[in-house]
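New to this. Please check this fold:
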Amino acid sequence: MLSIFIITGLLIIFFSMFRKKAKEITKHTLPLDNQKTIFQLINIIGENNEVASNMVSIGGTPSRQWLSFNLLLHLCDVDDFITMTESTIGSIRVYGCFGLICNNHVDLNIIKKKLLSDYSWVNTFDTCIKGRSTVARCIKDANQWIDYESTRKFIQNISSDNRRRNRLIEDLVNEKFIHLY
């Protein structure tokens, strides 16, 4: 009789552990709702109307804007970036143009010319320095803000690891600690 209770108890524990593990696996491998995710990442880019470099703060960690932009490079098509350049928020216009620069878009010069005369203020965050600049200045200094090598490596990593990409998106959207590794 006691052995039946022990076996039943062990089976319950085993199946509850299996069920929990199955939920964790499913949670990270479900396909993303791309449009919703893109919208959420664009909202992060618009936070504080800020353009930020790859490494910020004392520890040199990637900024939320940089991570969101690089995820957008992976998820968006060129039309999404063109739409971003028409936003009412300066930082979104800047990152929209950065997306077109990274994709070598055919009409880049036309869009860039329009944004180079945009003197709306944006906040900036580069290494440990917070400041202000204009949309035009950020576009002119695009190479300062786009770290092409880090971007290439980042996109390569998230392209090959859906679980990691989904966790990063979840952490960004929910303003949790960012798990990069």
